[in-house]
Amino acid sequence: LHALEGEILQTIADGYTTFLCGGALGVDTWAAEIVLRLWKNLSLTLCGGRAAEGRSGGAGPDMIDRSSLIAVYDERSQIYSGTWRALCYAREKQLDTRQIRWIEYI
Fold this sequence. Notes:
This protein is α/β, with parallel strands linked by helices. It has four helices and four strands; from the N terminus they run H-E-H-E-H-E-H-E. The strands form two sheets. It has a two-stranded parallel ribbon.
């Protein structure tokens, strides 16, 4: 969790104030909790659920294409999840990408 909070704080220091968070239990929930805790003292916006996927009524591709991605993903896991797809998309679009390789913390 310390690595995730550190990446969120660095993202804020880099000027990002709106956070899109997936709806999965685990890392998505932890990230949302960190942003909500920081929200008390900073001017931040949190969009949750499937908005991060750009579905109808969600953030949409334009917002995502102006984003920085914080991904907790490790290629060594060989799990091809939504996080993996988001990471591939961000790299393809050359977005600012911050990756926490979780296997290093086990």
